[in-house]
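The data layer described in this paper is built around a simple, fixed record for each protein. We quote a single record here, exactly as it is kept in our systems:
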Amino acid sequence: MLRSLILSLALLSSAVFAGPKVTFETTLGTIVIELNQEQAPITVANFMRYVEDGSYVGSQFHRVIPGFMAQGGGFDESLNLLSTYEPIKNEAANGLTNDAATIAMARTSNPNSATRQFFINLVDNDFLNYNMQPPGYAVFGTVVEGFDVVQKMAQQPTGRSRGMADVPKTPIVITKATLAQ
């Protein structure tokens, strides 16, 4: 009896504390990402703004490196740079790590330059973590469904296009982005 009560409370608490989920439908399949508002509130709010305004739809995963990550959200299908909101503060010191199937913000060498581009880690990328290499890359969620789709991205042929390397030869496009709370 006590064991079933503890199990019920554990299930209830995980349901209560689960973050919002974003579903990306792509040309290779569907990916569901659970966001961690508690540990990355600024990053999650920023990401959700792009989901809610619809601007991830039609963007592509423009940089895919097997054994590393798949990056997207910043370019349309023709590799035109998409407009952004103001950059956000880097939350890489939030305790979340760049493990396989986590999503993190892409940025330039300026730690506080992340806008709309994100990447999904294909493997554990410890060298991107704050504790290994300050300022690090801010993780803000986890792929909870469809990691096989992300892995399939890494199997697609890539090349150079418009001055960028590791661009899928057939664009991998986000066709729909929805938020479910």
